[in-house]
Each structure stands twice: as C-alpha cells, then as structure tokens.
Design goal:
Elements: H1 11-22, H2 30-33, E1 41-44, H3 51-59, E2 64-70, H4 71-74, H5 86-97, E3 101-107, H6 111-114, H7 134-151, H8 156-160, E4 171-174, H9 190-207, E5 212-215, E6 218-219, H10 230-238, E7 249-250, E8 252-253, H11 259-275, E9 282-288, H12 302-319, H13 321-324, E10 326-332, E11 351-352, E12 356-357, H14 359-368
Parallel strand pairs: 1-2, 1-10, 2-3, 3-4, 4-5, 6-8, 7-9, 9-10
Antiparallel strand pairs: 11-12
Length: about 375
C-alpha cells in the first residue's frame, strides 16, 4: 500500500499561517525549513540494553530505537496464545520512559514452526528459516496481531503501565535483509516473502489501521554469493502481483565505504520505486554505519573517519528528507560489542564498552541537539 502524506495541514491552519506571513510575524529560515521530526535519527543495538543505555538515549535525544521483536523468543511453544512478551516489555518501557520511539523488526522463526509445520531440517537453529506454509504464516500473523494489540495504539501494555509516557508503536518492520540467505533461509525468494508480508500486513491492519508496515531492510550487498542485490530484489518484489499493497515503507541498508556510495544506493532504490510507480512511498533507512577500527574491511574507517561519515550521511539525509520522502535514519550500532555479526560490526558503535562516547556520538548529537 503506497503511503500517502500522513501529516496534512488543514485549510484553517493554512489560512492562519498565510495571515501571519502577511503580517510579517513569521520568518522562515533555512534552518527551520530543514527541521526534522523527533523520531528522525535513531539507533540499532546489537547487544542487550540496560537502564544506563536508555537514560543516555534520552539525554542524547535519540528519536527512534530500532530493535528486534524476536518471534522465537516470545512464542516458544505451539500452544495458542502463550506469548511471553516480558523481554520486549522492558525494551518498550525503557525507551518510552526516556522519550524514545520503538521501531520493531519482527524476525526469528520458532523451531516448532520451522520444523513442526514447515518441515525444515534446521534443528534448534531455525530463526532464519522464514515461514512458508499457510499454517506457518497463520502462526506468524497471530503473533504479530498480539504484538500490535499490546504495543500499538490503545494497546494493553499502555493500559497496564499508565505511569509511562504514552508512546505506542506506530510502525512495524517485517523481517530483516530478506534478500540474503544469511537472514532468509534457505534461499531469498521475493514471491515467498510477499506471502509473508501479506500475512503480516493483514495482522497489523486488523489491530491498528493507522500503523505503517515497513519492508525488512535490504542491503545492496553487491558481489555477495549469499544475496540478491537489494535494489534488484525490490524490483522483483514489485513484480509480484499485489505485493505493493502490503507495505507503506521501503527500507534500504545502504552500506558503503564512502558517503557517495551511500547516496548512489539511495538513488538506485528510488529509481526502482519510481519505475514501479511507487515514488510516494517513504524510505526508512533502518541501518547505516561504519566501524571505528582501522583496516581489515572497507567499512572500518577509524574513529575520526567514522564520525566524519556519520556527519556526511546525516547531512545528506536531512537536506533531502522531503525530496526523497525519508521517514527516519537509524545508525548501526548503539555501542561496541563482542558480538561479531559482521567483519566490522564490533566497532560500529557510537560508544565503546562502558558507554564511553566516541567522536561519532558527538557528531550524532549535533543533529539531535542532545548531549
């Protein structure tokens, strides 16, 4: 479903603004014209978060926390409705208490779905084996529906926690890097993902029609034998009948050694969307980052290089936010970790271990006006 502009200015407001302008009461500056919504700049953690992390996010005025909603961890058995949301409750509470919006990406197939329903021979390590059969997709749909009913608009979580600031989840990202078999096993197939997406979209809409459904993030991954290039995958997804009706946002993961490479990838995704007659749909940059180590990988740029590239990329996205319909930009990652998700990921954080800030954090907060 192509997204329409969600913040329309009413005719009364337009008349009022016009009158004030006529009286010279409002001066529109270049800085004001480039102001961004509070949730525009976000972060993605790669390790569990604690109280100090959420507090520092609030201090730094982080707008969005993109975090995994682990289906397997929250739905451990085939018993209907036995969802365990206590881990995610803590995430939502910590973020809300510090003024941070949560953007979940639903990911991770339970073993009882992958082996018991779909018959994959994945044993206990089934998270990447996306559901394929109608019964498995029904299980996913039920889980997502329960999550939206809990954390979405007028969700039960907010009724149970009235002391928390009310920050319902307004967007749901479906899977992660489904163009790579590292995250979508056994093989990335747009037709199969379109069925997953349709099931998820239906579950979200049934509980909260105002919420956005965002495609799983797609890295370009040029030259990878494990993946389809992100832009090519998107092109194939658009060719699946009805797929375009199931999402409101496209999510590139534009990794590259230089900011110019990031820009090239964004333009490539936008060209695909334009050709598919979907240019009014928003872009969600749900991962972007560089490591602060030196050498060993093109995305390791040293501490100063990391900060410099953050500044250049954020400046570009801020400047072109309206033209490119960019909803938000999420930095990967929050803090350094020994979890080696990729060759450069361990030093991609804005902080070193113990929340010691890097130059990249100072660059980040210049955009958020935090500290």
């Amino acid at each position: 479903m192509a997204a329409e502009p969600r913040h329309q200015v009413g005719w009364i407001a337009r008349l009022a603004i016009a009158a004030l302008l006529a009286l010279g009461a409002i001066g529109v500056t270049a800085a004001g014209a480039q102001a961004v919504p509070k949730g525009f700049y976000g972060v993605v953690p790669q390790a569990p978060l604690g109280t100090a992390d959420y507090a520092r996010m609030g201090q730094g005025k982080v707008g969005t926390l993109r975090v995994q909603l682990n289906w397997a961890g929250s739905d451990p058995t085939a018993t209907a409705g036995d969802y365990d949301f206590h881990v995610f409750d803590a995430v939502v509470a910590g973020a809300a208490a510090n003024g941070v919006a949560v953007l979940p990406f639903v990911y991770g197939t339970p073993s009882w779905v992958a082996t018991g329903i779909d018959g994959y021979g994945c044993g206990a390590d089934c998270g990447t084996f996306a559901p394929k059969s109608p019964a498995a997709l029904d299980a996913l749909s039920s889980f997502i529906g329960a999550a939206v009913a809990r954390y979405g608009d007028n969700g039960s979580f907010w009724a149970q926690n009235p002391a928390l600031p009310y920050k319902p989840i307004a967007a749901w990202q479906i899977w992660n890097e489904q163009n790579s078999k590292s995250f979508y096993a056994p093989k990335p197939k747009p037709k199969r993902y379109a069925k997953l997406l349709k099931a998820a979209d239906g579950a979200v809409r049934a509980e909260d029609r105002s919420a956005d459904v965002v495609l799983g993030g797609m890295a370009e991954l040029a030259g990878s034998r494990k993946a389809v290039k992100g832009s090519k995958y998107l092109k194939k997804l658009y060719r699946v009948k009805g797929a375009k009706k199931s999402f409101d946002g496209v999510a590139p993961h534009p990794y590259g050694a230089k900011v110019s490479t990031v820009v090239d990838q964004i333009e490539l995704f936008r060209a695909v969307m334009k050709k598919a007659k979907d240019k009014r749909t928003d872009l969600w940059i749900t991962e972007l980052g560089w490591g602060s180590a030196k050498g060993g990988n093109p995305l390791n740029r040293g501490t100063k290089g990391q900060a410099k590239r953050l500044k250049g990329a954020f400046k570009y996205f801020k400047k072109h936010r309206r033209k490119l319909r960019i909803e938000n930009v999420d930095w990967f990652t929050w803090s350094d970790s020994e979890n080696r998700i990729c060759a450069w990921c361990s030093t991609a954080g804005l902080f070193e271990a113990g929340l010691a800030p890097k130059p990249a954090w100072r660059a980040f907060t210049k955009f958020t006006h935090g500290s």
